[in-house]
Each structure stands twice: as structure tokens, then as C-alpha cells.
Specification:
mainly alpha, about 0% strand, about 80 residues
Length: about 80
């Protein structure tokens, strides 16, 4: 499924999902963004065969994407609930 199809499918599921299911899905998103920010020695490959520049660039990209997603989720929740941090 390509990204556009995936988004359409997600949008089609939203009206049928319960509040609890939506909370659970959001918890999984937050877990995924937290996991993306974790460094792991396996990132360097077998016997450190991957360049630290490449590993650092990948980590920075994952970290930035995690921040962007968390920021968008927070902004949407604050807008919908009327609560600011």
C-alpha cells in the first residue's frame, strides 16, 4: 500500500474507531516515535561496518521526524481539547 492509499485507509477507519481504539493507536504512535530516538549498537552493523557518519545522519533524521510527529500530535490535541501546555 502506498502512502496515499494508507492515509485514505486510515481516514476511512477513523469514523468507525472507538475513543479507546483511537487512544490505543495514538499510544502506539508515541511508542514508535520514542523508539525511533533510541540508539542501538546494531545501527553500526556487524563489526561496526557502517560509517558513524551514516549512522549519525540516520539517527538525526529519525529523531527529527519523531519530534515533528510528536509536535503535530500535541498541537492537534491542544487545539481539539482547548488545553495548552
Amino acid at each position: 500500500m502506498n502512502p496515499a492509499q494508507r492515509q485514505l485507509h486510515i481516514r476511512s477507519l477513523l469514523p468507525t474507531a472507538s475513543a479507546e481504539q483511537l487512544r490505543d493507536a495514538l499510544e502506539q504512535v508515541l511508542s514508535a516515535t520514542a523508539s525511533a530516538r533510541e540508539r542501538d549498537v546494531s545501527d553500526y552493523g556487524i563489526d561496526g561496518s557502517r560509517s558513524s557518519d551514516v549512522v549519525n545522519a540516520e539517527f538525526e533524521a529519525r529523531d527529527n521526524l519523531g519530534d515533528d510527529i510528536d509536535g503535530e500530535v500535541l498541537a492537534a490535541l491542544e487545539a481539539e481539547t482547548g488545553c495548552d501546555s
